[in-house]
Amino acid sequence: MGKHVARTTSRRRGAARPAEVERLAPASTSSESRGEQLKRRSRLDYGERRRRVVRRKRVALGCLAIFLILACAGAATAFFYVRGLDNNMQKSFKTDVKANTALDKPASEKKDQPFYMILMGVDSREIGEASRSDTIIVVRVDPPQQRITLISIPRDTRVRIPGHGTTKINAAHAYGGPALVIETIKEVTGLPIAHYAEVDFKGFKDVVDALGGVTVDVPEDIYDIKAANHVKAAARISAGVQKLDGGKALTFVRSRAFPRGDLQRVENQQTFLKAVLDQTLQPGNILRLPSVVSAMAKSSTTDMSVGDMVRIADQMKGMKSGDLEGVTMPGEPKMISGISYVVMDTEGFAKMLERVKSGQPAEASNLSTATAEPAQITVAVRNGAGLEGVANDASSRVGVLGFDVQETGNMNQFVYKETLIVYKKDKKPAQLLAEMLGKGRVVASNGVYSFDTDVLLVVGKDWGPLRPRRTNQIPIR
User: Fold this and answer.
1) Which of 166-170, 323-327, 384-388, 396-400 comes out lowest in average pLDDT?
2) 69-73, 130-134, 268-272: lowest mean pLDDT where?
3) Is the pLDDT of residue 417 over 70?
4) Which of left, alpha, beta for 457 (phi over 0: left; psi -120 to 50: alpha)?
5) Handedness of CA 361, 363, 364, 365 (dihedral sign)
6) pLDDT at 367 over 50
7) How far is it, in rounded angstroms, from Cα 300 to Cα 296?
């Protein structure tokens, strides 16, 4: 079996609650004691520098700052609004010297030159405490194709941090700020990083409120007081389509109170970003732009000047909401020495990065025919329910229907209450399998699942005696 990430997206009647105690000190494989680690961290140059800044803004979700500029790029008016706030933006966007040195600045950024940037958010801490990254997204901005690819890296990913050994990637910011995050990401991905951006908690909430809220489909009930920054009114969110204000939006994108923890949070963040893009591209929101950009400018930090952002926005002015692809680094959760990590699927991630670098969609679809018969569709079947023999039963039934079953096995977690049929880029094969099975909810992979077939069938606890029914072939256009 390959490496697989379990996923639960079914709506639950009971609210999910936090089940993991976050550590103040990042996990490490070194032999030093916890006290020695904390003592060393207190001497970090970066920590000392941050303590001297009494009101230095802390970061929540870096992805929103530059993303909003790009989202507004379709309106000519946006150019003038941003230009009018130039002085405010120059004061608010700070340049970190070490981070700037770590960046791979191209000699010239032409329209035909894609580039990569890091969008970062970190946990807010009291003054004097080092901050851990809460969100890390590697972005490819491709002006020729008018396309943006977001690659989310889970905060618990186990990596080697230069100078600090093997630990969780979210420790990089605590050890050395944006500069060390950039160096770590460059080592992990092999990509040249041209820019970075951050925005703080208050800035995130203010920007969402300036937009008048953001409408999203919340997959399940959430109750997470910590993700809400201890604001009770924002801690509880019911499942379903709704407009979230700044406080609840923060809870939605920060909560890890799910069976899949950080991996579900990454998916929620991508869902939220796509909703933001859809909303900001609506003509009726152009009048909100001044307050949105103003809120963003007051609480963000980046190496880019306003001129840089306007130039990028102008290059991407033809972008539509469908031109955004969001994926997650493939990997699986694993306990190592009593510590919970996400262990990267090195081979799968390397293939994903090769596709991204060549300008292709991050997720490959193996189906190339215009119209597919079941025999042309490859299927992997996984037991997600923990019921003995259910994967073999499902494989047999799928095979009887004429599909090419290439793999049978288990998910790494048996938490699936419902059967899922997962696709990569092409939805039609999954729809055909669901129609012929008469069972299963069709969902997009978004890089969360690792499989080499056209479709992944995750057998849930709702699996029962199956009576396949005949159906007309669905043409795949």
Assistant:
1) 323-327
2) 69-73
3) yes
4) beta
5) negative
6) no
7) 6
What is the model's pLDDT at position 1? 44
| Contact status, residue 133 vs residue 172, Cβ threshold 8 Å | yes
> For 34-357, which CATH superfamily applies?
LCP protein (3.40.630.190)
Phi and psi at residue 395, to the nearest 5°: -60, -40
DSSP state of 412: S
Question: 139-171: buried (b, 16+ CB within 10 Å) or exposed (e) per residue?
Answer: bbbbbeeebbbbbbbbbbbbbebeebeebbbbb
Distance between CA 124 and CA 174 in Å, rounded? 11
Domain boundaries, the chain: 34-357, 374-459
Tokens of 332: 């699986």
**Those residues with Cβ within 8 angstroms of residue 287's Cβ, 6 or more apart along the chain or in another chain:** none
Q: 62: which 2 tokens? A: 């870096």
Select from 415, 417, 398, 414 the least CA-distant residue to 406. 398
Cα distance between residue 121 and residue 173, in whole Å: 10
Q: Which of the listed CATH numbers 3.40.50.2300, 3.30.70.2390, 3.40.50.300, 3.40.50.1820 matches domain 374-459?
A: 3.30.70.2390
Q: What is the DSSP letter of 157?
A: B
Taking a C-beta distance cutoff of 8 angstroms, is the pair 127, 136 a contact? Answer: no
Tell me the CA distances in angstroms from 24 to 161, 233, 324, one per residue in order: 18, 26, 35
Neighbours of 76 (CB within 10 A): 10
Write the secondary structure of 5-50 as one string of H (helix), E (strand) and C (coil).
Answer: CCCCCCCCCCCECCCCCCCCCCCECCCCCHHHHHHHHHCCHHHHHH
Contact 425, 445 (CB under 8 A): no
Amino acid 202: pLDDT? 64
pTM of the model: 0.61
Tell me how far apart the alpha carbons of residues 359 and 382 are, in angstroms, rounded to a whole number: 31
What is the rounded distance in angstroms from the CA atom of residue 108 to the CA atom of residue 95? 19
Nearest in space to 220 (alpha carbons), one of 265, 161, 285: 265
426-459, pLDDT tens digit by residue?
888 998 998 888 888 888 887 778 898 999 999 9
Looking at residue 287, what DSSP letter applies? G
Mean pLDDT of 164-171: 94
Phi, psi of 32 (to 5 degrees): -70, 150
Calpha distance 131→155 (Å, rounded): 13
Residue type, 232: K
